[in-house]
Amino acid sequence: MANVVDITGLPPERIVFSPSPLAELGAALHVLSEPGHHPGHHGWATATAASLKPDLADRLCEADFLWGTARSDLLLPSAPGATLAEELDALDRIDDEAFVAAAFEISCSASYDRPTRSPLVDRDERDRVRDMARARGPRQLAFVDRMLVDPDGLRVWLRRLLEDCHQVFFADTWQRVRVQLAADARHKGELLQRKGLAEALTATSAALSLEQGADGRTRVLVDKLAAGRTTAHGSGLTLIPTTFGWPHLLLVHAPGWPPVIQYPVAGPELAPPAALQLVQQRLEALAHPMRMRICRTLARGPHTTGELAEAYAITPPEVSRHIAVLKKAGLLHTRRRGRYVLHQLELATVARLGSDFLEGVLR
Predict the structure, then answer these.
(1) Does residue 267 carry a pLDDT above 60?
(2) Given a cut of 50, is residue 112 above it in pLDDT?
(3) Which terminus of the chain has a lower count of CB atoms within 10 Å, N or C?
């Protein structure tokens, strides 16, 4: 599978490599929320989490669906600024309906690349996002309800939260990584100018490639288990490096949003594989293509059977059968939250199957 970005006729100067403080903050918050995704950052995540005052930690928990299971498009600016304040000012200029619709992209939904109405104006969409938030817990539901009732107030609250993160821990982190990110972006930009886009993409990530189709169209292919399509004709294409990203390769391609790719500049080593017999048992459980797709979703965070059924257009009983196979192989863990049962991939177990699989489902 691949995500496709049509860049036919796009001039090279509209393809931009640039670091972004907001995108890097979003990546750092994701590491804090899901440290199991990022074994190379365990030390940073542990030390940072331990340093947070209870009030800030509680507020981060309320809003963590913005950077946990799926990264909100709000955190990947198509026109990166020089400072976090500059990028937050740009967010303030987005109208409420677009802002809220992007904020509520809180699961790995198969409908991401199809237009959806804002929950501020569409009752069905409002009910859907409330139900998804309810499955995440009472704090997340309260956050969603507050944004639906008072979007302006919650936008002020969210900006203050990001500013507090910057003051407490991210300013020092950004000071440490910004030179590396700027150097990487500059190097990729020079490759683009001297050797062309294909060479620049190859240097950026093995999951990126350029396709010259028989139909005469030019496309950037982003190799991921999910599939989607977008165009960069009128808006350009922005590629943002991150030191916190591996193994994720993120692509914004929602309708109405300029395409943005966030790519990791480095990746840590993974642990060696488990015993062959155990590997064989688990790979047999993963042989079914639908179970691979379910793993992609559960790798990003906990999901209910109903959410998985909606995301992949299959019945809840079918999902339950696939879940049972994965659980029998020890690849999932579950927990109950009220009337919801949440399933999540055992990342440490899957890591022992090999870096290719883990990177594939997390990408």
Answers:
(1) no
(2) yes
(3) N
